[in-house]
Amino acid sequence: MSSNSSITKADPAILLQQLRAVVDSPEEFAADRQEIVRLARKATVMLEDPFEMFQRLAYSALPLVTVRVAQDHKIFQTLVENKDGPTSAAVLAEKTGINPTVLDSLLEYMTTQHMIEESSPQNYVPTKLSNILLAPLFVDGVVHFHDNCLPAFNALNYSLSNPTDPRTAFEVGQNSPTDFYTWLETHPVQGAAFHRFMEAQFASLPTWLDVVPFGTEYAQLTDPETPVFVDVGGGNGQQCVALQKKYPTLIGKVILQDRPAVLEKAITGQEVERMSYDYLTPQPIKGARAYYFRQIFHNNNDAVCLQILQAHIPSLSPSSVILIDDKVLPDEKPEGGAVEYTAGLSLAMLVMFKALERRESQWRKLLGDAGLEIKAIRRFTDFGDSIIVAGLK
Ligand SMILES: C[S@@+](CC[C@H](N)C(=O)[O-])C[C@H]1O[C@@H](n2cnc3c(N)ncnc32)[C@H](O)[C@@H]1O
Questions:
Q1: Going edge to edge, which strands form the sheet with 116-120?
Q2: Residue with the nearest Cα to atom 26 of ligand 1?
Q3: Rg, C-alpha atoms of the chain
Q4: 295 in ligand 1 pocket by Cβ < 6 Å?
Q5: Which numbered atom of ligand 1 lies nearest the CA of 293?
Q6: Which residues of 80-108 are buried (b: 16+ CB within 10 A; e: fewer)?
Q7: Is the distance from the beta carbon of residue 198 to the nearest atom of ligand 1 less than 6 Å?
Q8: Where is the signal peptide (predicted)?
Q9: Distance of CA 226 from the midpoint of ligand 1 (Å)
Q10: Known catalytic residue at 146
């Protein structure tokens, strides 16, 4: 008996009716949202003919590219701010400064992606997507993926075909003599967008503080001079702020370490000490309760990660822990199929840093090779975000 035994025969009319209902009232399908999206995407691939499939593939860079144009030229903003109804193509041409004939093509493409809608000939209204793409988080994310990552993705094939070239795909694609983080220092728009994106991208998800009772596990019997929390490569310092918000009576030093140019823009107040530090060199803060690394190890290959760990091991006291906040992907691929986001993220690490996301057995080997013991791995999102608690054996 087939697993679809309750459905005797496919009925395109019913399917079309149901799909229209999804488009009109998506909220009614919220409970099955993910499975519907997964199947709808697969159904698209199964239904497309080769010509259609190829067109989709050939223009696959355009959604990101046109969003970047639309954000930069305030197309979404103009549509959303116009409370009087549709905005004409003429007004958009005036506001954007883009040649009207060119703009016509751009807007036409954007309507095919449901980023905007042509409500009547040459008149446009915003969609759900226009509004989402106006959020600062997604403006920064688009700048990062478009300006920083896209040239790197373009160079992946070169990189894999030339494995002896020491440059990352990022360095090849950007024709940059320096690594990504050094390059950011001379690209302030991209640097600021990247660090804000790092700060905010997971704001809607659970965090490590939901699974680590930091106050009771690591902040007992401290005095004001005890280094309680060292955020290594902490970027804008949002995790220091989150820790202090959750534990306002925490006693001890909270220290944010990063490159000097990044520290200058950090969001932390006086309560957080800022310290310029290169994590490849010996850790100057001795005997901290916790050395915390969020999204640091996935930027580095195993050899560099070992160097980072070795730079920290001499500073560990028996009560110190290394907290690694990164993806821990399962060793077995998920039954429902691979997850697009984490598979894509791994390739992003590859092109930007010649690194990859790690599976649990790879983490165990890495930390074992460094001579450290994994005391716990606590997962806190459905995407494998986890805190690895490691310390001296
Ligand atoms: C992916 S970001 C993560 C930032 C922050 N931990 C977070 O999760 O939002 C990596 C950070 O490592 C910093 N970084 C890169 N190389 C570094 C080095 N050699 N020493 C210290 N920090 C470094 C970058 O400036 C950046 O802030």
A1: 87-88, 123-126, 116-120
A2: 235
A3: 24
A4: yes
A5: 6
A6: bebeeebbebeebbeebebeeeebeebbe
A7: yes
A8: none
A9: 24
A10: no
Token pair for 87:
């905005």
Calpha distance 243→265 (Å, rounded): 19
pLDDT along the chain (393 residues), means of 10: 59 95 96 94 96 97 98 98 96 98 98 98 97 97 98 98 98 98 97 95 93 96 97 97 96 97 94 97 98 98 98 97 97 83 96 97 98 97 96 94
DSSP 205: S
CATH code: domain 208-332+352-392 is: 3.40.50.150
pLDDT the model gives residue 200 = 92
Residue with tokens 């984490």: 342
Q: Which two tokens stand for residue 361?
A: 């057995």
Length of the chain: 393
The 3-state secondary structure of 307-367 reads: HHHHHHHHHCCCCCEEEEEEEEECCCCCCCCCCHHHHHHHHHHHHHHCCCCEEHHHHHHHH
List the residue whose alpha carbon is closest to atom 4 of ligand 1: 235
Token pair, residue 60, equals 């696959």
Burial environment of residue 20 by CB neighbours within 10 A (0 to 12, 13 to 18, 19 or more): exposed
- Token pair, residue 309, equals 């760990």
- Judge if 62-132 and 208-332+352-392 fold alike in CATH terms: no
The answer to whether the beta carbons of residues 317 and 391 sit under 8 Å apart is no
Nearest of 246, 248, 247, 277 to residue 260 by alpha carbon: 277
Hey, where are the domains in the chain? 13-58, 62-132, 136-200, 208-332+352-392
Q: Is the CB of 233 under 6 A from ligand 1?
A: yes
Q: Which residues have a Cβ under 8 Å from the Cβ of 70 and sit 6 or more positions away?
A: 76, 106, 110, 115, 116, 133
pLDDT at 7: 63
